[in-house]
Amino acid sequence: MNHGGKIVHWVEGKPWEGSSERTGPVFDPATGEVSGDVLLASAVDVDQAVDAASRAAVSWRRASLAKRSAVLFRFRELLAERVDEVAAVITAEHGKVLSDAAGEVQRGLEVAEFACGIPHLLKGGFSENASTNLDVYSLRQPLGVVAVISPFNFPAMVPLWFVPIAIACGNTVVLKPSERDPSASLLLAELWAEAGLPDGVFNVVHGDKEAVDQLLRHDDVRAVSFVGSTPVAQYVYETATRNGKRVQALGGAKNHMVVLPDADLDLAADAAVNAGFGSAGERCMAVSALVVVEPVADQLVAKIRERISGLRVGDGRQACDMGPLITRSHRDRVASYLDAGVAAGADLVVDGRKHPIEGAADGFWLGPTLFDRVTPDMSIYTDEIFGPVLSVLRVASYDDALDLVNRNRYGNGTAIFTNDGGAARRYQSEVEVGMVGVNVPIPVPVAFYSFGGWKASLFGDSHAYGADGVHFFTRSKVVTSRWPETGRASQGATNGVSL
Ligand code: NAD
After folding, report:
1. Whose C-alpha in 33, 99, 125, 207 is 20 to 30 A from the C-alpha of 268?
2. What sequence ranges are listed for the domain Aldehyde dehydrogenase (predicted)?
3. What is the domain range of residue 115?
4. What's residue 492's pLDDT?
5. How far is CA 144 from the centre of its chain?
6. For 337-367, b where at least 16 C-beta lie within 10 A, e where not — what string?
7. Rounded mean pLDDT of the chain?
8. How far is the CA of 354 from the centre of ligand 1 (A)?
9. What is the pLDDT of residues 248-303, one digit of tens each?
10. Residues 360 and 228 in one domain
């Protein structure tokens, strides 16, 4: 809710200011100008939002499945009608190009569609006569209040990975979006209200560590779904589990795309450029390490270089291919890796600082950068840069490529490009990564599967959305039941009443 440049919280079905006077600046990354100030909640503000969610949980958990799915269907329709509006809000604060922003809304929408089927998804099991005259059956029940804490890079999609399923399962939600691009979450809140969701079932508190810490320690918050960088994911996981909460904490990534010598190199070059530089590399599934099995590296690097020269970098509203980075400090941090790579001995094939920019001088720009002959000890390989920097690592064999990927501390996504089905099949089986693409560079699972990485890319054992999402947001209960036959019924039966 933009109240004269002030971006406020959303609690109990309406905009809400809380009592904290702390704010943070929100930028238009394409101009470098401040577009608003977002309120940063205090612990007291968080308590009030959680109280509102707790009150709403009493009746929402009892709302019929028919009622809950009707709200979900309506929300899905409203979101589908307003994809462009949500995308425009994302681009204004994040900077990604409009088509990318619309794409992320679409992927979030698919989770809302999945959640429309909640009556089916919550069906339990029933075993008649498990023992003589004894029936056993299972239920899945909501947890209560759940917290969702999301990163800047997908301000609509990541909340939508969790919120529709949490709500469909009968929980109430407090969302703490990234303070760097907070407005998309408020548009989602308006759509929920318009869809007929009762007040207090979905709440948004803006803030930073102070708000997060209060969510992690509040007794009434039963579960936490977190997405962000690995150090914060680990902190959230350890703190919230220590406080007795159920936690799924998705962290950072270093995604490898392996290219075997028999691959279609044009297809691989297109994929590497899209997956490396789309959304300015600020995707948790972006490809940042291109592992090329010799002897095709020279050819592939030449093709990628040629494609990079055709990329239009500029204002995301102006039909460009790539927008700015999220903040000036992040831009400078990413640019510092260009010097670090050169100092470590990598070949700087394309220097993003020299790329032509179609945008305002003060925007947070950095063009696409390509390094070749990168080795596993260099910081441009070991660190998650989270920007438009693609590193080529040359290896001699499939086994060397696999070994490199499996030795990396992260395990979010990976892809293999080849025309050899047997090699692809071996890779999908042997690679220690949660999401694998075969000739698909960004293998984000569709909504009826689940999203999640391995190793330092996920803390906890539950992936996001799909069946894992339904399990995460519910507790199972098993009932063992025996009903003694009343005299009356058995009398009726012996009296020859036909049943
Ligand atoms: P971030 O970790 O800085 O912030 C994520 C959330 O945590 C935000 O809401 C932020 O306000 C909060 N936060 C930040 N510092 C905190 C602290 N010290 N204590 C408590 N809360 C804190 O991440 P980001 O920069 O917003 O997002 C980019 C990161 O997210 C990248 O590392 C990216 O790989 C990762 N990411 C991962 C996935 C995935 O599915 N694995 C998806 C998207 C993004």
Report:
1. 99
2. 17-479
3. 6-251+457-479
4. 52
5. 22
6. bbeebeebebebbbebeebebebeeebbbbb
7. 96
8. 29
9. 999 999 999 999 999 999 999 999 999 999 999 999 999 999 999 999 999 999 99
10. no
Same domain, 289 and 408: yes
Ligand 1 atom showing the smallest separation from residue 178 Cα = 9
Q: What is the pLDDT of residues 311-340, one digit of tens each?
A: 999 999 999 999 999 999 999 999 999 999
> Is the domain of 342 the same as that of 386?
yes
The residues lining ligand 1, judged by C-beta closer than 6 Å to any ligand atom, are 149-154, 158, 176, 178-179, 208-209, 212, 227-229, 232, 235, 250-253, 284, 384, 386, 412, 453, 457
The CA distance from 302 to 264, in Å, is 14
The secondary structure of residue 264, as a DSSP letter, is -
Which pLDDT score is estimated for 485? 83
Cα angle, residue 436 at apex, residues 121 and 458 outer, rounded to 5°: 70
Q: Clarify whether residues 351 and 364 are in a common domain.
A: yes
Beta strand 23-28 with 145-149: parallel, antiparallel or unpaired? unpaired
Task: Tell me: pLDDT of 369 over 90.
Answer: yes
Query: How far is ligand 1, taken at its centre, from the CA of residue 457, in Å?
Result: 12
Active site residue 169: no
* Residue of the CA atom closest to atom 21 of ligand 1: 209
**Claim to verify: residue 333 and residue 215 sit in the same structural domain:** no
Number of domains composing the chain:
2
Same domain, 305 and 245: no
ipTM over 0.95: yes
Coil, strand, or helix at residue 173? strand
Q: Look at residue 1 and tell me whether its pLDDT is greater than 60.
A: no
Query: Which residue in 116, 169, 284, 320 is the catalytic one?
Result: 284
pLDDT of residue 470: 98
> Which atom of ligand 1 has the smallest separation from the CA of 251?
41
